[in-house]
Amino acid sequence: MTGGATNRRTLAVVSAGLRQPSSTRLLADRLTEATVNALGQKGLDVDVHVIELRELAHPLTDALLTGFSSGPLREAIDTVTRADGVVAVTPIFSGSYNGMFKNFVDVLEQGALAGTPVLLGATAGTARHSLALEHELRPLFSYLRSVVVPTGVFAATDDFGAVEGRAGSDDTAPLVVRVDRAGRELADLVAARTPREVHDPFASPTSFEDLLAGR
Amino acid sequence: MQFGIFTVGDVTTDPTTGRTPTEAERIQAMVTIARHAEEVGLDVFATGEHHNPPFVPSSPTTMLGYIAAKTERLLLSTSTTLITTNDPVKIAEDYAMLQHLADGRVDLMMGRGNTGPVYPWFGQDIRNGISLAIENYALLHRLWREDVVSWEGKFRTPLQSFTSTPRPLDGVPPFVWHGSIRSPEIAEQAAYYGDGFFHNNIFWPLEHTQQMVALYRRRFEHYGHGSADQAIVGLGGQVFMRANSQDAKREFRPYFDNAPVYGHGPSMEDFTAQTPLTVGSPQEVVDRYATMREHVGDYQRQLFLMDHAGLPLKTVLEQLDLLGGEVVPVLRKELAIGRPAHVPDAPTHASLVAKAGGAHDATVYAAADDVTGASPEVATVTR
């Protein structure tokens, strides 16, 4: 909820990096910066909320086992659910997002990210894993009915060392170019939407007459 | 204010001995626990209904009927009766029969069960869970209030001029609670009928309980059953006590760590902070549960889960001694302080009969006896 100020948007940034410092977090920060800048050019202010899943690893396991979440994990779930846009970045493990990333997705309420613009990013040691972004992450967010921006950004260790503005040896656009493009794409989607209103079933329940009528 | 216990009826290995009770032992233990609940001065015993191992109570009215015969005062209830997969016609009959045998010491709590596969075992589909709860209860509600029911719905065969027998004792149906942990629809249902709402919060943070109860209270008032603070609210609870707090923690920890549902997850300390579970001295339990009404308002029923996670029978009976001896009498006093006069107690058979203007026999006599073809003489003087 943005308190009626229509020029404010909230961006939730989910990073599933395990090490500190983390190249996954580094990529997440760069994607965030690009998105915030692009939104700024449209005259929109952004509240950024970063969620480091590493800090929630134990509560995530507890939530899977007990069926409820409380404390910082609850706050993280609420933050992502209420966000106008999401940046989600994971390291690639065994050909896919890591388990912690999936655990977080699994504890979200059904429909929590439906219609939410999402920018996906992934990191790995080498560029051989880059298509995991398209074949693993993108379908997961299709299932969640999120609106995923066309550009997903994959960063291998090499990418962080590449010279800015020059294409890599395999003709890929350099990381900085892909990050900017992806940030603009997310900003376009976030700007085009009215700030998110979350339906609260406790505030406005389905009336019993409707329930009886099977509506 | 009613205090009591509710049981899941799980057959669980005692993690400290490795011993698992037999079904026969567990069933007898449940009966012993219920009888002891009465002995220590508790008001309510409620049994779960489950249809898969490791749970034994698949046939609640059989068990409750037996306990009714062995007790004098104890109110018998369920936690919960599966309104989704039981035929509402059979629920109407079974619980009216139990009402007669227990002399009115019966109410029940509707629920949707804890496992998906139970639906197909009884010819239903879990995707219809809420719709089944709504439709089946609407029919059950009529079967207890109308002598002759013609009915058609989505989930069972239509009824033509059907009379559920026996009719409710004294013409007054048993009071019904609706139990739900996370479905606002069920709070809405309870509010619509002016029935009770039970939030089994034992595995949930209090903020969530607060939200559900607030919704029920608001809608109870909306449907014209009284003011929001007159709605009938029940809560779950879970405690383990020893005279010395540290002894309680030491003794309960292995049961906690290996318990079904939450075992191998959060630490006992985190879980007690997040949920109503209280492990400590009787005074700590009193302190914790005396504050529940600050979150949900003055309420009517507090049930405790005491006999799970493989705790041996002897320990459970000792727990009941502490609950009935040192906790409940103090809570009764504390919760009576400042409780507004217009907040009602939970309805009982006696209070419902009084509200209905007195007892009246509700027997429906057959128009003609199938065997002799003759109408019984009394048929004209009743109803």
From TrEMBL, chain A:
* Positions of the NADPH-dependent FMN reductase-like domain: 11-157
Q: Which UniProt keywords apply?
A: Flavoprotein, FMN, Oxidoreductase
InterPro entries from the entry? CE1759_FMN_reduct, Flavoprotein-like_sf, FMN_Rdtase-like_dom, NAD(P)H-dep_FMN_reductase
**Molecular-function GO terms, alphabetical:** oxidoreductase activity
Against Pfam families, the record matches this protein to: FMN_red
Q: Specify the superkingdom.
A: Bacteria
Listed NCBIfam families? LLM_duo_CE1759
Q: Which PANTHER family match?
A: FMN REDUCTASE (NADPH)
Q: What is this protein called?
A: FMN reductase
From TrEMBL, chain B:
Q: Which InterPro entries has this protein been placed in? A: Bact_Lucif_Oxidored, LLM_FMN-dep_put, Luciferase-like_dom, Luciferase-like_sf
Keywords for this entry?
Monooxygenase, Oxidoreductase
**In what residue span(s) does the Luciferase-like domain sit?**
1-295
Q: Keyword Flavoprotein, does the record have it?
A: no
Q: GO molecular-function annotation terms?
A: monooxygenase activity; oxidoreductase activity, acting on paired donors, with incorporation or reduction of molecular oxygen
Pfam families given for it?
A: Bac_luciferase (PF00296)
Q: Which GO terms describe its cellular component?
A: cytosol
Which stretches are annotated as coiled coil?
none
Instruction: Specify whether Oxidoreductase is a keyword of the entry.
Output: yes
- Membrane spanning stretches: none
What is the protein's given name?
Oxidoreductase
